[in-house]
Amino acid sequence: MKLRKSEMAAIGSGRGTMDSQNQVQSDTVDRLKLLYPNVNEEETPLPRAWSTKDKFSYIGLSQNNLRVHYKGGTQGPGRRPHLPYLHLRLWMYRHGKTHRDAASVRATHPIPAACGLYYFEVRIVSKGRDGYMGIGLSAHGVNMNRLPGVGRFPPGWDKHSYGYHGDDGHSFCSSGTGQPYGPTFTTGDVIGCGVNLVDNTCFYTKNGHHLGIAFRGLPPNLYPTVGLQTPGEVVDTNFGQQPFVFDIEDMLKELRARTRVAIDEFPLPDEQGQWQQVLHRMVSTYLVHHGYCSTAQAFSRATGQPIDEDIASIKNRQRVSKLVLAGRVGEAVETTRRLWPGLLERDPDLLFLLKCRQFVEMVNGTDCEASEDGANGVATSVISHTGRPHKRSNGVAADAAEEGGGRDVDMAPAANGDHEDEALPLVKGMPGVTASVAALLPDRFEADASSQRASVERMLAFGRELYAMSQKLSQDLYHKSMLEDAFSLLAYSNPWDSPVGWQLEPVRREAVCDALNSAILESQGMQWSSPVEACVSHARSLLRRMSRASLGACAFADLSALLAR
Amino acid sequence: MQQFTVFMDIESSRSYIDELYSSDAVKVMEALVTLKNSVIGSNRQKSSVISQGVVPRLLQLMSEESLDPNIRLEATITIGSLAKGTPENIDSLIEKGTATALVEMLKTVPLGSKLAEAALCALRSIFSHKPAPVDALPADMRLLTRLTQIAREDSQEARTSVIRVLAVWCSGTVEQEALTCAGACSAAAAMLVVPPRSVPSPSRLVPALELLAAMCFKNPNVAQVALNTRHGDKSIPELLMCLVSRDKPLVVALKAAKCLTFLQRAGALPADDSRIVFGALPCLARLCTKENTEDIRASAAEVLAYLTEVDTSLQRLAAISNHLMSSLADIVNCQSAAAKQGAFKCFASLGANDEDIRKMIIETHGLMVHVVNGLNNPDPCVSLAAVRCLHSLSRSVQQLRTTFQDHAVWKPLMQLLNDSPGPELLNVGSSTLCNLLLEFSPAKEPMLDQGAVEMLCNLTKMSDPALRLNGIWALMNMAFQAEQKVKQRILCCLGTEQMFRLLGDSDTRVIMKMLGLLRNLLSTRQHIDAIMSEYSSQVMQAVIVVLEGSYPAEVKEQALCILGNIGDGEKSKDLIMANEDVLRKLVDYLAHPESKLQEAALFVAGNLVWRGEAGAAARQQRLAELGLLRALKLLRASHHAAHLHDKVKTALAQFNEFT
């Protein structure tokens, strides 16, 4: 029984796109995802380590490419030899006494603008011989044979390189001479570098203390960069996988609050219309769209908004929506056929979606093709007897499962029972479902057993019909996985407590209801989505565009929080 | 038109004001409502009504417990409305005993009632006026307990009002302790909670933070109570820590940082507490930055100055936080006196101990010019703060020699000190002068020309010992390796009478510096003889006074050192030799149990018996007669004086004829 379950789960997870709600949370939380929730890493990956390619050869990497050390040129680091003056000069030249010995490494990826506020920390493990270390940012292609911020002579040759140097505490901005900026830093210090992608500024921290803004007017797409210059210099990096020394969350909160105020206080030009009216219109169309008929009428009376649709038509849609939301999909399909003939025939995909849901609802026990059970809200699932989660510990339920287990072996023909010969042919038509469907049948022949059995048979027949229907449709992954998920429900003695149990939740009806509602509206020559939804999805896509256009403020415009208000 | 309305006012108001005095409750009620409506929002109407003398009647209606509660409520609301008028309006309300009446009423009105709320609201308005009638609210425990109960349990409006009143009222140790006993800490803590996802409201938080700050200010007991007061699962410092975060309104963050600062300075939190180091300090440094409004920056600088006043590690941390130096330099440029004052004070605190920070301050662009301008600022608060800043920076030898000289800071400083300064300014200013007058300071010469000697001599006559100390200290510094004419001038100006007065000063430090001054005056041979030729009797008398008096050992040591200096003079030696009394004392001191007195006496003896100077043999003989030789030999044999043996041997070597 156990084995079979895992087998089924494996099939169930074969779906292409799994809903995140059902994904089991992994034990290791990705802190970076929490820090930068608006970054789409498929488009713009976050820097998570130093690049093994984008570095000067004097730089060595270790510890998952998070530790950087200076290994110098061909000879490698060594003790300072006892040499005559001229040779000493030569040795110094070779071992990090000149800028030519400087070497930098960039992170694997540039900082995505959608971070809003980006931050990383570097711990100085050892200052090495002279502590000539630089921490900062540089653009792709900037020469790596120097510390960040230091430009070639004449200054400004290497554009877009920014650094804070440990030996003198100066900040360097694409030039050979620094500006006094902050304190020096050395072994044991933790230096943080923050990029505010809203204001395009950069600040540093030392041991958790904000040192103030170092650079303004930063260009987009900069890479975190560190540079070392003398032997023995070693630094460790935290790109956010570990908690930071500095309280970055505090600044994030500030930026969120600021962005929110900016949105709230955005001046609305007068000529762009009467906002009150626009809002009323949005509310009214939203109510009409979703068929909240009486509310829409009341609202329209109060605000003087016209309703463009016939009241009877709204009521019809409302009726159908109610049926779907109550799980009575079969009735909804019938009503749709009657009220809008030809609609479902023209849209087989929609019909398939509805039928699929109907199947799920049959498992759920809320939909019966014949309404003699008085389906409204009364759970008449054939499976309900074999154990909701709380019945598990119950001795009777356990017995039932055991008995079932005895019977629902794959080699069913050998098992006892009168109905395995009926069960087997049924499942043949439904791939992904083994003979175990039989387990769903009631174990004991009680008074109502015959009617239950009938409904199970009805369900299986419906499933076969559904499968046949799916074969006619274009075989895309979406339909296939939908059907698989639905059928997978049958594999469990307790579908509600199964990995595919999410389908049974009433909230899942809403998407189906919306699809049907949209289709009806479209067939009537009306807009398939309400202006509110259009507005929200417009805003979402604007945020995506902002992210692509390197406008960091997109990180702090929290649409769902704004809507929730 | 104007006349017409005035006429209308009087005509229309007269009738209902008469009704106020009616015995018919209904008529009184109607009149009250009319009156209330007429004064709301109109300062002119408020003044007119007050001048018509209705306040006593309103107070009576308000306080009379037998009256209809609604009448009392309306009367209280009307008083509250009048209390929102002009300062003159409030003055006359206070004059007529409104504050006392309201306080009396609060003793009895039921908690949670509208009447209590209205009374508190009126009291709050009156207390917002300066000066607040704090005497109207006695430190009576029963009353205070009642008020803090309101602050904990009543409606939001009442709670805010009562806390505002208490915050103004709490101005001294007595009030602080009384409020703490009445449980005001927990009441304030309850107001500091910001529920998650709600927008923090400054109008609710600020009064509570102000109360907390007022209670903890320089009061270790209260601060300790506040430290241990919890609301829910958080202590007061933790609640404050939430409020200093960046997403809170600036004024809330500022006041919360102020509370943390006061807790720290009152000893409840150590200087390295994370809530100070990562909470209050970075918050204040952030509030000082250019993005904020002038008044926020000014207050933040002022609080930061207090936070960093003594602790060097906090000074170092502040100095690197968020470009504080340039933020402060920018605040100095602001127009308001408060801003300038805050920034100068903050610079003064930051530069108090650490030479590197002083260097950073001086290197901040154009700062010295601002300090000099600040000294000249007509606002005494600003000039005082500028002097504090200067005082702090004057501890740096390098600055004395370079920047201070470049900017001739002594000029405005001398001017300030000559221009009848306040006691505080005089104190800090003269301390700064002490530093400016150190020998290596090139400012010394020009300051003499400005009459520094006269001014300092006057300081030594002040009743405040700190000022006397600064005066004599500065004179001592001035006399160090000075030219003879300077020394003469000091002696002449100070006068022997004042010199003796200072030797009898109640403050030992003053006596020490006075003797130090004499030592500095009596250095180098020519100066000694020149001065002694004129002042020998006074100086000798001064030394004898000290040696005979009941002074601590270090004072007597100074006196012996003066003798030693005199003994170094060519002619002055004879003055000592002529005084048998002094010589006998000298011999006695060689055997004194206090080692430093032995050493000083040895120094005098060494100078007197030095061979190769005219009359050395005669002096040696005379001293040997008095037992000096024996005393020296004893000293040589003593195990306790092992560290003096070299000097004893040198002195004995001078006596070769006798040994």
UniProtKB/TrEMBL annotation, chain A:
Residues 28-244 form the B30.2/SPRY domain. Residues 313-370 form the CTLH domain. This is Ran-binding protein 10. SMART domains: CRA, CTLH, LisH, SPRY. It holds the Pfam family SPRY. The lineage of its organism: Eukaryota, Metazoa, Ecdysozoa, Arthropoda, Hexapoda. SUPFAM superfamilies: Concanavalin A-like lectins/glucanases. Residues 1-23, 385-405 are annotated as: Disordered. Transmembrane segments: none annotated. Belongs to the RANBP9/10 family. It comes from Bombyx mori.
Automatic annotation (TrEMBL), chain B:
Its main location: cytoplasm. The keyword Magnesium does not apply. Keywords: Cytoplasm, Nucleus, Repeat. It holds the Pfam family Arm. One of its GO terms (biological process) is proteasome-mediated ubiquitin-dependent protein catabolic process. GO terms for cellular component: cytoplasm; GID complex; nucleus. This is Armadillo repeat-containing protein 8.
